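Exercise: predict the fold of this chain.
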Amino acid sequence: MSRLRRRLLPLLGIACLLLIGFSSTIWWGPRLVGRTAWALPNDLWGTLIAANRLLHGDLAGLYTPPTGLITFPGGAIILMPVVALIDVIGLPLRMQGPGNEQPAAWLLAGPYETIISAIALFAADAVAEHMGASMRKRLILATASTIALWNVSIRWGHPEDAVAVGLLLYAILDLGGGKTTRAAWLTGAAVAIQPLVLLAVPVMLAVLPARRLPGFLARAAAPAVVLLAAAAAANWHATYRAVFRQPNWPAVDHPTPWLALATRLPDGAVAAGPVRLLAIVASLACAAVVWHQCRAARDSDPWDEFTLLRVVWWVAAALALRSVFEPVMVAYYLWPVLAAALIAALTTWPRLLATSIVAGTLTFVSQSQWRGEWAWWLPMIAGLALTLACSWVSAQRPAGRQPLGRGRRRGELLASK
């Protein structure tokens, strides 16, 4: 009960997401557009089918149609519990379409993917609590984070993004407390679920002492390497095409100016994977800045609150590089940046309020259908830049502020007395 009370705000966020998710997908959402079909996130169904194949031992079919899976195998593994339940009940796991306008599997898959996506809300609240944020700040953070999470969870059906970023935030929190081993395994789990978090890994390495780098890298790489090796052994061609080429469709989603550099694939698709190497190179530049700014963090356990938030801000900046260099964009690509930036904005009330407003606005504006290589991408990049500017954490800690660890221990001592 004590832990439930401590995480009351994320629990309320889950309740709101469930309420909004069900009412918007099966009730007032379809009525607004005059349809009988439920308004469901189509992307989720492909991942559910991939999870169903894993459940039945069909590893070779993980990356073959109609799954459309392009993330690492962990993205399907996290959905296996609900797929097993759907299988036991005997519900059909068919994509929505003519003759299947109201798939009953959504009644189980929807709540499940919403609940596991909320790990990002719990992680954000854990960081806020750790740094001593007031309940009012945590309330604003939870509210803004829940609104932003709707984009990746309810609207687009990509719980793997939310789970991976949530695990990454917990890993950063553990790094700040000197728990390097657990942070490495959490990072490895995050990468195995959604490789977009690889952009944040150089930033995390920059605040580690040199003696801990080999062990951290080995543990962080192990889950993804094992899962990918198993998938590649079962079906090398399909695994290579999905994971390394990362096909996307500019005629369906939002093309960007980087589309000219992307390799053309059959069926009108382009390979987004090779262009993303530019984002990885740019993330190394972010890591270089962090290495210079956070030298004290490599020799101190735990970090003070401003070091923790500064690292979170640079993680947000590194994650934003995916959108900057992406040849084809989708609205939910923006969410990881918003999730991390909202946490970094906890330094002051003006920054938190401004970041919350910008993040909420960007979440809904990103759902627009503007076409053209500049028409949608440029406003979204400007919105991400504004989000990062509003949440900026100064490199200098204000005078008179105690390191977080000593402040917490003193408060616990007074409470015990």
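Check your answer against the key: The chain has a mean pLDDT of 91.
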